[in-house]
Design a protein that fits this description.
By secondary structure, the protein is mainly α. It contains 5 helices and 4 strands.
């Protein structure tokens, strides 16, 4: 068996509040104190938000055995997102060789899963809207948060160094979430909600 690529956690969370952040600053992994609204904090904070919603979607998956393959994927993605947050919370000079991060292996795995699930889906004839099932809508929420995280990290790269795998991973993950949202409705036998421009008020004749 190959050696694990990342160090295991070495933390002890005994006291949850420290009061050190009461002045609006927080610490990076290397100990640097930075404002809580700094671009790096905003970036990994949004990844944390994304992780929370992925966890919600994973719980929804557990409610139907037909969705078990996706539940397993989402649970893995939660660990990957925490690894991504670890590397974003670290200045480049403080990164350790075995510090958790996302790698090309995570990107390649997402690509395989996108291709496998997309292969069984009907071709799209229109843009789709979130809906049909609660889980579909939850996955669209994760997709949009993922895109926001990606935008924030693109902005961060203009000021600071970010590992090259981070943006491709998030880019691929948001694509995967779109495919997963379609796959969910397909597996559950629920029609997709297709965009109809004339379903807007201006195109309806049945409205007063």
């Amino acid at each position: 068996m190959s050696e694990k690529p990342f160090d295991e956690p070495r933390i002890a969370l005994n006291c949850i509040y420290t009061k050190r952040g009461d002045a609006g600053e927080t610490s990076l992994v290397g100990g640097q104190r930075v404002p809580k609204d700094a671009p790096r904090i905003e970036a990994y904070g949004t990844v944390d938000e994304l992780n929370a919603f992925v966890g919600l979607a994973a719980v929804s998956c557990s409610e139907d055995s037909r969705l078990a393959p996706l539940a397993a994927i989402l649970q893995r993605v939660q660990h990957e997102l925490f690894n991504l947050g670890s590397i974003l919370a670290t200045q480049p000079a403080d990164v350790h060789p075995n510090q958790p991060r996302v790698t090309s292996a995570e990107i390649a795995q997402l690509e395989r899963e996108i291709d496998a699930m997309n292969a069984g889906l009907p071709p799209l004839r229109s843009f789709v809207l979130p809906g049909g099932t609660r889980l579909n809508a939850e996955l669209h929420v994760t997709r949009t948060i993922c895109r926001r995280a990606e935008r924030l990290i693109v902005a961060l790269t203009r000021e600071e160094s970010v590992p090259p795998e981070v943006i491709p991973y998030l880019n691929r993950l948001s694509d995967a979430m779109f495919v997963w949202s379609r796959w969910v409705n397909h597996v559950l036998g629920v029609p997709e909600v297709l965009w109809e421009p004339n379903a807007a008020a201006s195109g309806r004749e049945d409205l007063p």
